[in-house]
Write a sequence for this structure.
């Protein structure tokens, strides 16, 4: 059982649709990050959220950190084929402690 | 700017063979990590080093050893490779808490 559970594991949608990906835990995190990974590459950071209830926007992507700092969500508006990839959440339980990852959500956006 | 460099990129081992995966970063980061990623899965932490001279076990350390040779380099050793260790291995570095982790390109290891 992973410390961070992501859902759904797979998501296939049409271009223009909206979607939300979830990252949940029973543990409190000092910070939570979202990464995107393309085939054959390492993950690349999208955003870091630190404060409970925090909302950050990155163009069509909206990230939210739960009030209790145990969960986070990623919402994509009007998905595009270029959004296709593996989305990973990662968290530190204590600042400076080990960075652990969720199992990932594989997103495919069809034209 | 090289960032995080891993060698080799690909490796095939026979069961029982040993090998060392190399990782070097040129960003003067304190912390370095080794993860493994199985097909379609997220990353699982093998070992990490919060600073030069220290190493700690992660989620799946069995069958692996690490060495933080200096601030730049963090190596991962498989003493007796097993087919269950077939995976893609990623090295990452970061400066401190709540900041971006930079990843290498990965090492694709197959144990037959």
């Amino acid at each position: 059982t992973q410390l961070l559970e992501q859902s759904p594991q797979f998501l296939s949608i049409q271009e223009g649709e909206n979607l939300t990906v979830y990252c949940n835990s029973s543990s409190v995190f000092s910070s939570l990050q979202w990464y995107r990974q393309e085939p054959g590459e390492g993950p690349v950071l999208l955003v870091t959220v630190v404060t409970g209830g925090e909302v950050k926007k990155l163009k069509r992507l909206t990230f939210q950190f739960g009030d209790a700092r145990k969960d986070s969500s990623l919402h994509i508006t009007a998905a595009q084929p270029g959004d296709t990839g593996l989305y990973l959440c990662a968290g530190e339980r204590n600042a400076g402690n080990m960075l652990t990852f969720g199992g990932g959500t594989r997103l495919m956006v069809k034209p | 700017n090289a960032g995080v460099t891993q060698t080799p990129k690909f490796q095939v081992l026979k069961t029982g063979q040993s090998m060392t995966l190399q990782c070097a970063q040129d960003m003067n980061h304190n912390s370095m990590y080794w993860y493994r990623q199985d097909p379609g899965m997220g990353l699982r932490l093998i070992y990490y080093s919060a600073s030069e001279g220290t190493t700690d076990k992660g989620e799946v350390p069995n069958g692996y050893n690490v060495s933080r040779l200096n601030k730049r380099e963090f190596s991962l050793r498989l003493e007796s490779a097993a087919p269950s260790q077939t995976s893609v291995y990623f090295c990452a570095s970061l400066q401190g808490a709540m900041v971006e982790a930079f990843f290498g390109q990965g090492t694709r290891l197959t144990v037959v």
Notes: Chain A touches chain B through 28 residues (CB under 8 Å). The mean pLDDT of chain A is 92.
